[in-house]
Each structure stands twice: as C-alpha cells, then as structure tokens.
Amino acid sequence: MGDTVRRPLGVAYRWLWTSSGLSNLADGVVKVALPLVAIQYTRSPTLIAGLAVALVLPWLLFALPAGAFADRFDRRRMMLGANTVRIVLSAAGILAVALDAGSIWLLYGIAFGLGTAETVYDTSAQSIMPRIVERDQLSRANSRLFGVELTTNQFVGPPLAGLLVAAGVAVTFAAPTALWGLALVALLFVRGSFGTAETGGRTSLRTDIAEGLRFLWRHRLLRTLAVLTGTVNFATNAAFTVFVLFAVGPSSAMGLSEPAYGVLFATTAVGSLIGSLVAERVERTLGRARTFRLALLTSALLVGIPAVTTNPVLIGAAFFTGGVGIMLWNVIAVSLRQRITPDRLLGRLNSSYRLLAFGTQPLGALAGGAIAEVVGLRWVFGTMALLVLLALLGGARALTDDTMNAAERDTAQV
C-alpha cells in the first residue's frame, strides 16, 4: 500500500491540476464580481438575485445533455471548448465596457453563458480522471484536485474579486479572461486521446441520456449514493438559506455582526480544505463505509447544531467538522463512481449526479423558508438534521465495504 501511495500521479495529472486551479480561480472571481458589477447598473434586489439564478440554471437545463456529449466526444476537447467560450464571453464584457454598452441584461447573458460552459467543463473534467491516473490513485488524485479547486474558488477568488471591481469593470472582466486563457494553455499539455467507445455513435441524444439514467437507477450502490447526496444538499440549503436570520443582527438569536457572520461561515470552507488533504488517509484508516457514515453524521451535526445552541464557538466547531465530512464524502464518492462506472457511461453518470445535487438545492431553500415561516427557525435546523439521520439509516445497508468492493470487482470484469 505504501508504494501505491508514493507512486507519482504523472505529468498529465499535474497539467490537469494546474488547469483546474486556474479555471476555478476565474470562477471564484466571476461569481463574486458579477453582483458587484451589477449594482452599477441596477439597485433592484430581484435583478441582482437573478444573476445567481442565471449562473446555476444551466445545471438544471443542460446537465444531462452535457453528460451525453462528454461520452460522445473527446473530453479534453470538450474542456478546451468550454474554456474558449468562457474567454469569449468575458472578452465581450471588456468590449461592452469599452464601448459604454454595459447593462444588467448583458451581465445576465454572460452569467448564463458562463454557467452553461461550466456544466460542460466540470462534467468532462470528472469524467476524464480515470484516463489520467490509475484506478488505485483516484482518491489521492481527486483529493488534491478538490483541494486546489476549493482554495482558488472560495479563498483566493472572492477577495481578489473585490480588489478587481475596485480597479474598474474592464479589469474585472480582464482577469478571468487571462486566467481561463492560461487554463486553456495548461490543458493543451494534457497529452492523449480521451474519446470513448461512444465517439462517433449515431444514437439519438435522448437515447444516450436515457441509457445513463437507467444505469444509475439500476445500480443500487450508485443510486443510494445519489439519493444521499441529494438529501444532504437539500438539508444544507434549507438550513443555510435561513441561517442568516438566526445569526445576524441585534434581534437575532446569535446577535452577530456581518463580519463575524462571514468568519463563522469560513470555518466550513476551512474544514473542507482540511478534509481534502486527509481524505485518502481517512479512507485507508477507517474504510469507505465507515467514512461515508461519519460524513453523514457530521452533516447532520452541521445543519442541526443551531437547534440546540447559539454559542458561536460550538456552531463554528460543528461547521468546521461538517466541512471536513462533506469533503470526505465528495472525494470518496467521486472516486468510487469513477471506478465502478464504465468509461463510456461516465459522463452521463456524472451529469446525473450533478443534476440531482443542484436540483435539490432550490427545493431545500424553499422548504427551509416555508418551515421557518410556519413554525420557526430552530425547527428548520432540527428537521434537517433528522432528515439526514434518517437518510443514513435508510442507506446503511448499501453502504458496506463488501458492497463497494463487489461493485469494483464486477466493473473490473466487464
């Protein structure tokens, strides 16, 4: 086992890691910068909030087709094409500013286009990994990839966006344009062919999508992981949508200031970063089944802790622990999917997962608001914690090391 851990991941992986870091840094800048730029054109809360919808709406509309295309065409070329679209859209923002033609509606178009490109890039990026590293290296490769994505997207990107907006709208668009350009160049050094058996196929897009969905539904382990992922995303969005009302302001339960609220939420991101660094070691030490269960328990703690305390230290500790657990889940679940899904279906399988993960988020937000309105904030946190615990009990039979090992053996024999 020690030799396996120390074996290098290879030159292609290092270029992919570099490209992903640069792309996610650009994403982190854009997601924070767009609303800051938008307030120069409108003060309407509805229009400003709509930018966030425009960014994530493509996941609901195009996730499944993106997966089908990732199984039809060379996945590296799909990623190159997605970053090219991002560069063009960001450059359009620079041109609009130069011509004094900027508007909130232009920002909507850019946001929607960037979100669409993200569905293609991210789906292809997860699907390309088993062709870059060996099967027994997937957990280490994914943990390092998640680590750089989290660091650039959540830690470096947001404060950089604030500095860029202060320097001017044109500079705000120029920085991500340059970053996506560098990411594209790095991706050119990932040598090899990354098409699949489906490349050049003549089946219809609907048939391809249906095949991927059937595979997910009929595979008990993957279906269980998908449902659990969707459940946790539902619960966390329900809790965090209303948590600001519980935490911020003199009349709130916690009475925090806005800066203190930001620090409190940063504990989750710090925990996620730590989780990405230790995921492979925890998986080897505890086994995948125990690690999955531990991750679900920490998720229940994450959403449920405000139901029993207003102490910011205790809540921050729970947020940190929950962040670690979420990243452990992500690294191991993604690596397991990559191991047990046939390569020709991996794009469609990954897109189905993403659709479920993002699709449950707005539903969770609606549920959180409704519960808080009817019975109060603390009921939201307690109810969501109970939901995650019930999901753990319901999925425990499928989350065993024997089940996962058997799934890997069956795939290896195909």
Q: Explain this structure to me?
A:
With 414 residues, this protein is mainly alpha-helical. Helix content is 83%, strand content 0%. It folds into two domains: 2-190, Growth Hormone, Chain: A (Up-down Bundle); 211-413, MFS general substrate transporter like domains (Growth Hormone, Chain: A, Up-down Bundle), CATH 1.20.1250. The protein has helices spanning 2-6, 11-38, 45-72, 75-98, 104-132, 138-167, 169-188, 205-218, 220-247, 258-286, 288-304, 312-340, 346-375, 377-395, 401-413. The longest helix is centred in the middle third of the chain and has 30 residues, at 138-167. The protein is globular, with a radius of gyration of 21 Å. Residues 1-5 have low confidence and may be disordered.
Measure the end-to-end span. 25 Å
Q: In sequence order, what are the helices and strands, one letter per element?
A: HHHHHHHHHHHHHHH
Number of strands: 0
Unreliable segments (pLDDT under 50, ≥5 consecutive)? 1-5
Q: What's the pLDDT, averaged over the residues?
A: 87
Rg, Å, rounded:
21 Å
Q: In DSSP terms, counting alpha (H) and pi (I) runs of 4 or more, how many helices? A: 15
SS-based class: mainly alpha
Q: At CATH's second level, what is the architecture of the largest domain?
A: Up-down Bundle
The proportion of strand residues reads under 5%
The CATH superfamily title of the largest domain: MFS general substrate transporter like domains
Total of domains? 2
Shape: globular
CATH class of the largest domain: Mainly Alpha
